[in-house]
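A further point concerns the way the authors explain their paired sequence and structure data. For illustration, here is how one protein appears when written out as sequence plus structure tokens:
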Amino acid sequence: MQNSLPDKEQYPQFSQGKENAAAAADVTVKQSSYTDVLGREKSLFDFRINPAVQNRPGTIAAMEKNDCGLVMELNVKAKKAVHSYTHETALYLYKEAESTVEKLYLHIQLWTDEIFRVIFSGRKEIADPFVGIPQDKRMLVGKPQKVTYAIEETDTAVCLTTKKIWIRIDKGTNRITAGYPEGEVFFSQRKEEFQTDDIHDLALSDLQGEYACFEAIDLEGDEVIYGLGERFDSLTRNGRTVDFHNKDAVGTTSPRTYVNVPFYISTRGYGLFLNAGAGIDWQIGTLDASALQFGVLDSQLDYFVIAGKTPARIIENYCYLTGFSKLPPLWSFGLWMSRNSYVSWDVAEDVGKKIRENDIPCDVLHLDTAWFNRDWNCDLKFSEERFPDPGAHMKKLKEDGFHISLWQYNFIPPNEDNANYQEAVKKGYLSKKKDGTPYQLPQNCQGSWVDDVTIDFSNPQAREWYAGKIAALMELGAGAIKTDFGEGIAEDAVYQNIDGKQFHNLYSLVYNSTVFEACKKVTGENLVWARSGTAGSQRYPVHWGGDSQCTFEALAGTLRAALSVGISGIPFFSHDIGGFIGTPSDELYVRWAQLGLFSSHSRCHGAGDNNYREPWRFSKEVCDIFRYYDKLRYSLMPYIYEEAKKCTKTGLPMMRALYLAYPEDRNVWHIDDQYLFGDSLLIAPVLKPLCRTEIRNIYLPAGTWFDYFTKEKIVSGGMWIKRKVDLKTMPIYVKEGAELKYCEVKESLMNGMGQIVKIENWV
């Protein structure tokens, strides 16, 4: 097997010099001084040190009741932190300081019987940092319901009660707690008068005119936190640093990620959605084991507390706020075949021919970065030499059962022969420097694309312009668009309708929605193939896990990401079978294929024109195993598609952590190497090479389970079992009572799935 490692031609974002380096030399990337602790200068929590003035809620000056809840006007306890050191711990001994605001305001809004909103700032009016972004392209798209509630006020507290929850505001401390009618508390703010530097409760901090808001929530000793997007390092977030800045992760074993979602779920029985686009710092039991803390680089704090007695209900309520996923087309659930990149119609069509010759059901051929006049010169025009007459070729491939997917990205190479660049500059469709010239990311900007210019998707004319070009490709015959990148835009660039600091993570949502809607306008189908995202991105499926390494560790990290992004409200998720960076061994390719063919969507993809991911490029045994699982997937398409439909109604993911189905079973709280595929199939992918072990330890939650392959019946009270595995075997267990429908396996789903040929009732 040829080894093909990435180089600067495959990863030009790492190049050390291109023709436009000189033009970019006068640009300096302004790194915020108050950012996350990974790779950037300081934690946002460093706002606490001198000379920051902390505007903290004092006594209640006035309280106004309205149709949706309360507005509380609070006197300000403005203090500066004075350091006193005991051993190595800084203690904040506060003293009164001149306030930077006259009053503080706390809004408590009831959005449903189970959801309330908290808004905190130094002004009574609620600011809208996304005012320049259309409502349907924001994270928050839900509307408040008309909630019937009661207010009870005593000398010590104010209590709001709905049909499902109660909310109590303590008059002495302004502490907010919430619980269920039977008395169980599920949410409580942390309040501290005497603090070490480990805890920082509700405050608006001012550091020389730059503001940040902070909040602290009680974190119980046995409480576990999930979510916050696509996390490769761990399913649970307790005690881990959270890099909350969308970026090119380049690998699937680090804390970096393409998809940061400001939403988490607690085993205490609530979720929290932070409606913020500016820089966020999460500290989940890291600064202090008893506090979940977050800070936002903004002068307003805006978050929703989401009740729900089950995690499934919490996710459903979260999707009420941010939207439910739409159902992708049936054919998209078939196999996608790709590599970076098929360099001509001859190559792509030969791959299609061999797919059919090798009897491998497949629905999509993907053209990656090389379908332009030269590799990576993304002008959305087919190379006349290598990809002539694209309409005719795509029509013929569709007749053979293949949809064509096309790569593009949100940047434009600033080349003289790129007409899109010339037009975008002329019409002002790009992000800019302060002098009005196009912004180019400079060479020293790590983790982002260099030299290329960025389409300003906050500009409605730019969105319309780009959507028109995407629609033209769909009208020509393309079936899908890969929305690559989107996570690396500059915060210090100038955008037409939003501040760059608010736009960095949100950009991916606006970008993907623009392309998604352009495609749907032509095809009527719900599909993009997206890499970056944030809250609300589930409305524009499907997402995949970016550039993974070809290692077993990266395979395990990919599964963790799938489970984490699923518990963050994104139900449809895929990844590159075989890994992207490097060349997989036969064994790794098989294990990745087994996982990939039991993911919501399945795509083979790797870096390098000759770094193959087609199964016949490996051994005959590998190809036979791949074919077996691919046909098994296609035969189970009635089950898969029915489960996908459920996901669009409930918000639950196709690949779901066991906690989502068995929240009362503490044994599953930390399990991140197996999952439920839909309601009825428990999948235990093999994530280690056979030379290390031939035994797979598997946890079966309470109930009756059947080994899919041996038909062995296991009655479990919640127990671990040992399952011997060989290369062909990926353990699958079926829940008692499941009905699995099988259809005839066809070479593609172009004309729908085959006839139902068998129904298994597992009882």
User: Anything to note?
Assistant: The first strand starts at residue 53 and ends at 66.
